[in-house]
Structure formats: structure tokens, C-alpha cells
Amino acid sequence: MRKAKEPLLIEEIRVDPPHCGEVRVKILFTALCHSDVHYWEFEGIRALFPRILGHEAAGIVESVGDNVPDLAPGDHVLTLFTGECKSCQKCKSDKANVCSVLGINPFRGGMLEDGKTRFFSKDGEPIFHFIGTSTFSEYTVLHHGCVVKVNPAAPLDRICLLSCGLGSVWNVANVEPGSTVAIFGLGTLGMAVAEGARMAGASRVIGIDINRQKLELARMFGVTETLHPADHAMPLQQVVQGMTGGGTDYSFECVGNVDVIRSAIESCHDVRLNSLSSRELLSFSRLL
Questions:
Q1: Where in the cell is it found (predicted)?
Q2: What is the CATH number of domain 166-266?
Q3: Model pTM greater than 0.70?
Q4: Catalytic residue positions?
Q5: Contacts for 26 with CB less than 8 Å, ≥ 6 apart
């Protein structure tokens, strides 16, 4: 893309070889995320053009630079827009999940090693990277911490969609067998959460969305019950609490809307903190 909100262009470009700590990947499949649309529309002094968007993709390693320990040409991989250097304090902590070095930075247009791009037009014009991935390209160059090797038997056309969701169920929430789960938003992320909850053994998975077609499709991914806001007079968190006898064990918000986040939190069963000696309301994050 060369300007905000203009049609994407298909052009022949030059993709330089990977430098130290980098990998060049042949992209076979890439998904379209709303974040791509957001930065396609983004204007202002921090906007970077020309630029190659895309961040959810699967492909095959074509070449590697020096000091890339775990990857080799021919490896099947997924791209990571939230990479891990595995060396910073946050990567070493089990209480943080955003790398200090390779965390999402939409305003960084070059590679970490030298701040420069690996993309150039046929005329030699530099083309900016996008959140360390830039997968709307036949070939792209990434920091090796933004690439993860996958089983070569996994279908690349499908796993490129699942950049998050499953890990939220298995590695963060640790959903247990027999538990109840609510999922607000049944896009690709929500469907991945549903599949992960099913595989984790959840007994009830309640899917919530404003699109009735998604509600029907969600049952194929493990959703056992569905809710549409228009079918209920009361807030959905109250509906979920009534269905589950006081709230679910786990709740996932897969929309990115503040009001929906509140509903998702309030659909879980209550947890007592302590008795208060005052009627004054305390300010704290229920996310804790």
C-alpha cells in the first residue's frame, strides 16, 4: 500500500536476504485481520508508507541468517506478530507475555537488527515492514523470534488463521474438564477459543454473537449453547448467570470492545475479596 485507504497494489519487489538473527520465509497462506484494515485506514504523522501489511500467515523457511539456532530451510512455520526474544526480563517472567524487544510496535517500519527495511521496489525505494511480519508478500523477512516451527503435517491453509485463541484456553486460563465457558464474539478468534475449550473437556461452551450465521457455525467448533443479544431483554451477563447458576468458570472476550469486556467479566461467577468496613467504593481492576 502506498497511501491510506487506497487499494492495495500487486507489484514485483526485491526482498533482501536475511541478516544475522533473521529468517526469510516463503508465505503460502495469509489471513486478513481487522488490524490490517485498521492500519490500512490509519492516517497521521506516524503513518508509514509505502508499506506491506499482513501478520497472520503460514509458510516455509527459505533461508536463514547467522545465529538462528532452531530454524532451517524447509521448516514449516507460522509468523508471530508478538514475538519472543527469550532473553529480556519479560520473556523470562511467567507473569508477563509481551516481549520488551519484539512486542507489537505498529510504528516500527524496519528490522530490529539495524532499523532498516528488507523490502525495496524495483526502483530501489524502501518499503516499510508491518509489526515484524508483513505477510502480504510472497517472501518476507522476520526476526527468528517472530517465527515458530509447526508440524509439517498441519494444513498451512488452516493454521494461518489461528494465531491466538487456543493458547488463551490452554496456557492462560487453563480450562479444566467439566468446566463452563462463555465466549463473547465468534469470529476466527472466538471459534479457536471454542475449539480449545472443547478439546480441554469443557462441559458447556456458551457462544455469544450478533451474527446468527456465526451462532450456527459455532456448534461445529464445540459451542454447546448460543445467545443472540436481540433475543433477550436483560443484559447478556445476567442471562449467562441464570443459565449457569451464578456464572461461568471461564469467560473469553473476543471482540475488543470495552462494554463487551465488562459483560464477559460479569458473566463469571463471583469471587469474594474481603468484607469492607466502609460503604466507599474502591477503585480496582476486576481483571485482576
A1: Cytoplasm
A2: 3.40.50.720
A3: yes
A4: 33, 35, 38, 55, 164
A5: 59, 60, 61, 62, 138, 139
